[in-house]
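We recall that each integer encodes one residue's backbone shape. We quote one record:
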Amino acid sequence: MVMLAVVIVSWNVRDLLRTCLDSLLADLEASGIPSCIVVVDSASTDETPAMVRAEFPAVELIACDDNIGYVKGNNLALTHLGIAGKVGQAVAQPARLACASFRFAWLLNPDTVVHRGAAKALLDFMEAHPRCGLCGPKLLNPDGSLQHGAFALPGLVQLALETQPVLWRFRDTWLDGRYAAAQYEGPPFRVGHPLGAAMFARVEAIRQVGLLDEGFEMYAEEVDWAMRMHKAGWEIWCVPQAVVTHYGGASSGQVSERAERLKWRSRQRYYRKHYGPLKRWLAMRLVPSQHRQAGDSAAG
């Protein structure tokens, strides 16, 4: 029985992906967790597919002809593995995975390094907390300093702190949805949502709330997923006993101007999906005018 599916979506980060896979495989081997790793490559031009085939033959590679992005890439892999499917789409596992019974899925960025014991700490926590639908590890920057890896669900205050210069002195505080650094040194704690770099999800929860919303091409997709799980009664946690180093922005940094546009487009989609009329109207007034959209028919 394969208990854990690990999905990594990669685009032009070959060397970082190699390091990620080395650390992940070492951790999974040490823990003895039955697992399957799928790499979805979004038409990289740096010979990523060749590297995966040559150096990691046990890893399943889905090499795309186009850059389909983070959200569609994860959904493609989850559907391919039979974990979940799109509405109206049959879910069928490939023959070699027909006997697999996935209970958890770890959506891992390629610019991460998995510390020893991380996978087991996350899985053990999930096993002990059956109402936890989604959790994340403690994240570190490459220099070993703490990286905020969990946040409160966004409200108007967080948006104002980001967009109003007079309020910038309150950024990176609890008002901005951050949790105290000391919490990352203690036991697991409840959060609004984990950062998307290393989301560990329960398959049962995925099947209940559905795949990532492909209306979010990049950014806010993990916030939306967590919100949908909260609404369905699932708990969201951070598990500091699991540690992952996250480089951050390795793929999106290659297209920074487009990434900035997508960030605000995704946020507005989130506001339209989950805010009431008044709160949504106020949020749109706070969005920078150059990024404001008149509407999003797919936002629901």
Notes: The CA atoms of residues 28 and 119 lie 7 Å apart. The two ends are 38 Å apart (CA to CA).
